[in-house]
Amino acid sequence: PFDATMLERINAKRFEMNLDPVTLSQVIFHFIHRFAALIILITAQILMVLSFKAYKNVSVVMQSIYILEGLLMIQIILGILTVLTQKEPYLTSVHVMMGAAVLGMAVLLF
Q1: d(CA 94, CA 63)
Q2: pTM over 0.85
Q3: DSSP string covering 29-74, please?
Q4: Alpha carbon distance 20, 87 (integer Å)
Q5: How far apart are CA 49 and CA 73, in angstroms?
Q6: Which of 19, 87, 98, 105 could form a disulfide with 14, with the two C-beta atoms 3.0–4.6 Å apart?
Q7: Measured distance CA(36)–CA(34) in Å, rounded
Q8: Element (H, E) at 105
Q9: Rounded to whole angstroms, how far apart are CA atoms 26 and 29?
């Protein structure tokens, strides 16, 4: 769990990688962010399956659903790359912008 021992292990690993130490609140924030992303992904998939069934004959809605699904997949990939590149600034900015695009498209669609 989230305790001092876990934080010491994380910061020891970060020290080996020549990175600055992190605080427990930063670790918890990032955990919540990733958990929320998982919940959003699962919820979006459920809503998309239901939408496919309800609107399969409405081409405008189906096109919007495909676009939203594509944006969501790109967002997930960008999130993974943001972590792997240790928050490279341009990539992180695109990840944030894509998040806004996903939210905007979801609001327009639903």
Answers
A1: 23
A2: no
A3: HHHHHHHHHHHHHHHHHHHHHHHHHHSTT-HHHHHHHHHHHHHHHH
A4: 13
A5: 15
A6: 19
A7: 5
A8: helix 89-109
A9: 5
